[in-house]
Amino acid sequence: MGEIENILEFLVETEKLKNILRKTRPVGLSRRENSAEHSWHVCLAALMLKDYANESIDINRVIKMLLIHDLGEIDTGDTIVYAAETAELKSAEEEGVKRLLDKLPEGQGNEYLLLWREFEAGETADSRFARAIDRVPPLIQNLHSEGHTWREYNISKEQVFSLNHRIADGSADLWCVIEKKLSSAVDKGILK
Amino acid sequence: MGEIENILEFLVETEKLKNILRKTRPVGLSRRENSAEHSWHVCLAALMLKDYANESIDINRVIKMLLIHDLGEIDTGDTIVYAAETAELKSAEEEGVKRLLDKLPEGQGNEYLLLWREFEAGETADSRFARAIDRVPPLIQNLHSEGHTWREYNISKEQVFSLNHRIADGSADLWCVIEKKLSSAVDKGILK
């Protein structure tokens, strides 16, 4: 029973992801999105888009990866994807993930720490697809709101195309559709 | 490519779950919780508690079920679990789920409609466990906030024990731990 108690404590602590605010706003809403609801949406996106992965993937592993991929932010906060990724930040995020997973019964957390690292490294088919999917909701949100974070943070079209091209590493078909939408946003002057 | 477009439209429409407010508040926060962040948290809870299911379960199916279990609320809103469940409400929720799934490419939505119905019926090992897990976060949230929804909606201890006893159908071990916490809340006068 002590083990279930430990898991419940982990679940209380992970509630804090609901208070980690991202830069983007959900479609149709004026408030900022939090990393917990984002995590749900990327899992749903991965599930529905699984057939368009470039490589053979294990969608169940991808979903587990996406369920936990932002847990490190509880200790570090969210960072805009266009900011330079420093080794210090990644190290702090990993420490945060470890702190949370340490609350789980002995031996249970390690699987998820390895999954988190795999996602961060992006060197496997599953993590390439998961990282591609992680980019989809913020692009959709910008495309549906006149590019609110692109404007607010002065993100250029060059930055948007360059960074999000990683979608093609996970799903060339998906990038093809998204790239057209981004080009159309450039034509409309939403993305400059 | 038309199929990916359809899936992206589905993903835009499901963003609305982020605006469906539940009665409970996340631990430590004064705002109400939305059904999207709740959906993330129950998926994480199911994953971490999977070894305590009474029966042999397929955790990947359970997680898929929980990812989509609240989608019907986009059209109907959230209803407190202690309210009488009417056939009209369930029918309206199913219509809502169908409306969303109809946005997916042909043939893709049916699997999830069946999963949604399986969750609602609660007659399989996977759905019994999923339904047990779905009760855990709101109880944790109440136990950590002096029973805020119990007080606000005049929910008696008899109602709380009677309704949440369904946790035992999915995991007797989990119910054993939760039941003790609820009894302790009664002793402290938080639950009356």
Automatic annotation (TrEMBL), chains A, B:
Question: Carries keyword Hydrolase?
Answer: yes
Q: Which InterPro entries match?
A: HD_domain (IPR006674), YfbR/HDDC2 (IPR039356)
Q: What molecular functions are annotated in GO for this chain?
A: hydrolase activity
Per the UniProt record, one Pfam family is HD_3
List, for all copies, the residue spans of the domain called HD.
15-175
Kindly state which keywords UniProt assigns to this record, in alphabetical order: Hydrolase, Metal-binding
The superkingdom of the source organism is Bacteria
Its protein name is HD family hydrolase
Organism name: Microbulbifer epialgicus
